[in-house]
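User: I'm preparing a small set of examples for a lab meeting where we compare how different chains pack in three dimensions. I only have the primary sequence for this one, and I'd like the structure in token form so I can line it up with the others. Please keep the answer compact; I'll paste it straight into my notes.
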Amino acid sequence: MKKLSLIAVLILLVIISCTKNSETANSSNTNTNVTCTGTKTFSADVSPIMQSVCAASGCHDASSSNGPGPLTTYQQVFNARSTIRAAVASGTMPKNSSLSTTQKNAIICWIDNGATNN
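Assistant: Understood. Below is the structure token output for the 118-residue chain.
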């Protein structure tokens, strides 16, 4: 009887924790409204953020296997753009620091405007 009760409690905890995580993720992802002013470029706006925050922390450097992997070149960032956008918009990335509103807007606006190699 004790084993059955323990199993029921564990299952309930798993269900509650999954529901809570899902609700948190969904509410975070709705905050994607940004104000885009001017044209954002990869070379001037996005790459410096990726190099100084994402790659420099060791999380997405050339040898990374975290998430989408390395984010050191245009092609790598372009290939991961939807993942990057969601993580930046929800605030789940970067893990060990934070981006300013200006930095977040630059990344999101660049992606939303076609993520061109400019």
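A couple of notes for your slides: The longest helix spans residues 2-29. Helices lie at 2-29, 42-55, 74-79, 81-90, 101-112.

User: Perfect, thanks.
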